Structure formats: structure tokens, C-alpha cells
């Protein structure tokens, strides 16, 4: 498969420069051999490169030039030339097992061996020809440094974009075998396997995308197999939405730029989950959400991840506080499901913070490295408070603390505003939630410390956990508000 027009333009420019060089020197041999070297090396750069284009051109130039030198050295020994040609041709055939492009490159290098072995007048003349061939290939390497520049890991991005494009097409295809094709997965694995070890930490998101693609394929296959005929219309609508999201992921991976905001994607998937009575489409939506979080730089994904996590706390914490009003007032299964989803988002958030250390400093907006570490720690602290609130929900009527329900609405408003602030909207003024809690504590008459008796102990423990939760959220609010480009504050 041939590359973009800009890649073709670079190859043509290399040939033109080689020809111009021969004309300026008024040397027909120099012009011809440099042109041949630039032409063959340029063809090699057009063939679906899996590495950086400079590395790809340099490898092709070195191989073609080396074969030209070898051809010049064996020029006078026919039997040795034929033996080397047979061995090299056999090796080039073996390269075909690695793919069409490597096989063609292997055949192209043989041309260098045959040119100098057949056309050179003698060894010295052959080496001169090989030198001009190397000059032409060098010009092709140099022009690879010219713009336009691709995003980092361009070849890996192309392979993953093609993989997600195939999933998008397969999700709405009438052919059930469309989701079973392994070629896009194999191409993506091969592209990622070529990355050197030092490049893998920054490319961690793409390895995550490959894993999510396999899970998405299984979820799509499950939807096809488990959704009954009575739900066929809704299933087609869900699969069309899945194809739309997968197409957006493919375009985002290829370009490095978001084609749909994470908020829009999450809203689409959440509405899908809310209206679907089946588990398998909901699993698919979760997989799509995880994949949508992967494509761009980790720190570019962090605001969306943090906003999504805060939206889950916005649903979770008010439910937990309401659960203190009476025994069984909260649906524990729903709470535990929200906690599980919250844990998954938090793991993605922590992984993105770790990956951000290997990324360029200019990508670390809107928070600095230190602030990102603080956010990660404060998110863990809030999660710990949520766990304790869940563990100490009242089991008897004596342990209920109905006054805590007064905090549910202020928490809902604050966390909703904080989620919007994390996504880039107006920041939330630190201290607002703490003021609400202090007013509540003063007016409720609840004990701040244990004064004896199991009822008093349960109430004071609930108040202490609520206070710790408020403090943790306030600390997170202050860090979010300290972003590089603070906007005007909005009281929650």
C-alpha cells in the first residue's frame, strides 16, 4: 500500500535533486547513477513504512548502496556473482513472509547488485558508480527531513486506525464473518512490536488500544449472538452508534486530534446503556468508553478521565449519604456497580498520570507534573472515603443518621460543577463545600466526637467520615483550580 501524496512528493524531489546534481557536475555517470539510487530508494520509502520515515529511508539506502558495492567487487568473477545473486534472491524471497512491502524492498536491493556487476567497466569504475548510487540514496534520506511532519508513531497510528475502521465496518455489516478477520489485528501487533523499548512507555496508550480492540470485537460478537429478534431494531441502533464511536476513534488515532469531545461520546454511550435492557450492549459501551480514552497524549486525556470520574462520584456520594437515612435506603447493588466503574476510570487516570512523565513537557497542560501527582493522590483519598462510607452504612435503625441527607444536594451540585471544571469549564472556588458542611455541622447538633453509647458512636463516625470526604474533595477542588490557565471562579 502506498503512502500519502507528501511521501510521493519527497521521493520525486529526491530524484530531481539527483538529476540536477549530475547536470551541475556535467557528469553523465554521476547523474544516471545518483538518479537510479534516488529512484530505487524513493520507491522503498513509498511502501507502507512501519518505522519512522527517516529510519525507513536510511535502511533502504544502506541496503541498496551495500549491494551496489558488492556488485562492483564481484564484477570480474562471474561464478561468484551468480552464486551471490542466487543467495540474495533466495533471501529476498524469504523477506516476503514478513509482508508484501518487505518482499518488494528485498527485490529492489538486488537491482543494486546487478547494476554494478553488469555495467561496471572494472572494479574501480564499479566503486565510483556505487558511490554515486549512495549519493542519490543519501539525497532521499535528507528530503525525509522536510515537512509536513506526521504525528509521532505515525505507522503504528495508521495500523490501529485501520483496525478500528474495520471494527466500525464490521459492527454494522450483515456478514457475521466481518468481525472475525484477523489481518487488521496482526498488522497492528507487528507495527507495535517494531517499537524499541525506549519508545514503548510513551506509546502505552496504543498498546492499550490494541487490547481494547480485541475486547470490543468480543463484545460485538456477543451482541450479535445474544440479542433476541424482538430487540433487533434497538440492536441495530446501538450497533450504528458503536460504529460511529469506533469511526471517531479511528480518525482520532490517525490524526492525534479529537474528532468528537469525550463528553459527547460519554453522553451517547450513557444514554445507550440507560435505554438498553440487555447486559451485552452495556458491556460493549463500557469497552468503547475505555477505548475512547486512549488515542491521544495521556495528559490530553486526563481532563476527560477526571471529569468522568467526578461524574461517577456525583452519582455515588449522594446515594451513599441518602443511605444513612434508613436501613436499606440505598440500592447496594447499584452502588457497588458505580464503585466498580469508578475504580476502572481511576485506574485509567493513574496510568495516564504515570505515562505523562514520558511525554513532552509541552503536552502537560492544563496541569504540571506535580499537580498531576497531587490529583492522582487526592482522587485515591476520595475513593478511600467512599469505600468507608459504603462499609459503614447503617445495618440497624439505631445506626441511622438521617441528618446526613442534607449534604446530598450540596455535594451533587459541587461535584457536578467540579466535573465541568475538570473538563475545561469555569473553575470551582475552593472552600465553598467546606462552608456548607460547617453550617450543617453547627445546625444539625450531631456529635463531632464519640461521647459514649453505640448510637452516639455511629453518628460521630458518620460525621467524621463525611468531614473527611468533604476535606478530600476540597483538596481536589483546589488542585483543579490551580491549572496553568485559570478561568474565573464559579461558586458551586
Outline:
The chain contains 18 helices and two strands. With 492 residues, it is mainly alpha-helical. It folds into three domains: 5-143, no CATH class; 152-296, no CATH class; 297-492, Methane Monooxygenase Hydroxylase, Chain G, domain 1 (Up-down Bundle), CATH 1.20.58.
What descriptive keywords fit this protein?
3 domains, 2 strands, two-stranded parallel ribbon, mainly alpha, elongated, disordered C terminus, 72% helix
Describe the secondary-structure layout:
Elements: H1 5-25, H2 28-46, H3 53-73, H4 78-95, H5 100-119, H6 123-143, H7 154-172, H8 183-193, H9 204-226, H10 232-255, H11 262-275, H12 279-292, H13 298-322, H14 332-356, H15 369-391, H16 408-422, E1 427-428, H17 432-444, H18 454-481, E2 489-490
Helix pairs in contact: 1-2, 1-6, 2-3, 2-5, 2-6, 3-5, 3-6, 4-5, 5-6, 7-8, 7-9, 7-10, 8-9, 9-12, 10-12, 11-12, 13-14, 13-16, 14-15, 15-18, 16-18, 17-18
Please tell me about this protein's structure:
It is a single chain. The protein has helices at residues 5-25, 28-46, 53-73, 78-95, 100-119, 123-143, 154-172, 183-193, 204-226, 232-255, 262-275, 279-292, 298-322, 332-356, 369-391, 408-422, 432-444, 454-481, and strands at residues 427-428, 489-490. The protein has 492 residues and is mostly helical. It folds into three domains: 5-143, no CATH class; 152-296, no CATH class; 297-492, Methane Monooxygenase Hydroxylase, Chain G, domain 1. The longest helix is centred in the last third of the chain and has 28 residues, at 454-481. The protein is elongated and about 105 Å long. Residues 485-492 have low confidence and may be disordered.
